[in-house]
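quick q for whoever's on today - can somebody do inverse folding on this one?? i tried earlier but teh output was garbage lol. tokens:
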């Protein structure tokens, strides 16, 4: 057998396998989780559902009702990932403000790169390039507002 052809074949296969990067896999996983979370989900403001300006639902409440607003969806998405074995260190909340309406928006940030919300999965850098939203910060998912028990399914 021609060793040059064998070398080229092995090199080509190794190169092609290497092209499926961790980022591609991570984005695909984020999209799958987002698809599951959004199945039948109806975006509902807290004032309509809970008669209050801001109520953070548990993942179980969101799973049962299939309704909620941005932080309810982010908690539910995180709960699905945690249940699937994702390490909590790969999950954060990212806070934004719409510069036109001045409304705040919270999304789940996966592996420091992928933003999950009700409209899709975005690269953090692409989202930050969107002039409609100003990023205000990031936070761990376990907070006083969202203790660990909120993520149980």
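ok took a stab at it. sequence:
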């Amino acid at each position: 057998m021609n060793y040059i052809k064998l070398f080229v074949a092995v090199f080509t296969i190794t190169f092609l396998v290497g092209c499926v990067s961790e980022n591609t896999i991570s984005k695909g996983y984020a999209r799958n989780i987002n698809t599951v979370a959004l199945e039948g989900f109806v975006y509902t403001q807290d004032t309509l559902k809970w008669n209050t300006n801001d109520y953070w639902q548990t993942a179980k409440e969101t799973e049962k009702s299939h309704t909620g607003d941005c932080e309810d969806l982010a908690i539910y998405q995180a709960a699905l990932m945690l249940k699937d074995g994702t390490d909590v260190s790969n999950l954060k909340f990212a806070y934004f403000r719409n510069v036109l309406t001045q409304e705040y928006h919270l999304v789940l940030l996966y592996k420091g790169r992928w933003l999950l919300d009700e409209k899709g999965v975005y690269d953090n850098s692409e989202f930050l390039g969107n002039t409609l939203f100003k990023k205000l910060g990031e936070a761990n998912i376990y907070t006083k507002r969202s203790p660990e028990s909120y993520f149980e399914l």
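fwiw The first helix runs from residue 3 to 19. also Confidence is low (pLDDT under 50) at residues 6-17. so keep that in mind when u check it
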